[in-house]
Amino acid sequence: MRTYIGRQQAISAEDFAELALGTPVELWLGVEGESEQERAAREDAARDILADNPNFPDDLVRIAAQVIEDNPDLFDVVPLVRPTRRRTARKGVAA
Question: 19, 8 in Cβ contact below 8 A?
């Protein structure tokens, strides 16, 4: 099943977020290894967007809730560590 927002196909949760926001997700979350100067510039841009769109946070929450409701399979979490089987000691054998 393919899902489109406007004319853009959304393949992953990140795609949905970016298309819903109209901005790259990295603008709001940052990127690993960014410098203090890059971080300051990114935060300034984010503040400008929020100043121009005071309803943006409310709209974002509403959009995110709708995306999750409509596409719960996009947010299936796969555990990073598999639970290990607990071994029980047998009679006469140390655990």
Answer: yes
